[in-house]
Design brief:
Number of strands: 5
Strand content: 35-45%
Strand order of the largest sheet: 3-2-1-4-5
Order of helices and strands: EEEHEE
Number of domains: 1
Number of helices: 1
Helix content: under 10%
Largest sheet: 5 strands, antiparallel
Organism: Lentzea alba
Shape: globular
Radius of gyration: 10 Å
Protein name: Cold-shock protein
Structural class: mainly beta
């Protein structure tokens, strides 16, 4: 599922707006798992989730 970064926090966590309009909090661990050191508002990302729906990584968007 793809999303747009809404906020990037100083602790490394982020809030993203999924394409279906739902805001999702993303842990700092999931941000770094995707290879990011920082994100900017408006940036597009792809959410990688576990079977129970928890975001495990933010990846580069698939175009």
């Amino acid at each position: 599922m793809q999303a747009t970064v809404s906020t990037f926090n100083s602790d490394g966590s982020a809030t993203v707006l999924r394409d279906d309009g739902v805001l999702v909090d993303v842990s700092a661990a999931a941000v770094t798992e995707g290879g990011w050191r920082m994100l900017r508002p408006g940036q597009r990302v792809t959410l990688e989730r576990s079977p129970d729906g928890v975001v495990t990584a933010l990846r580069m968007p698939v175009l």
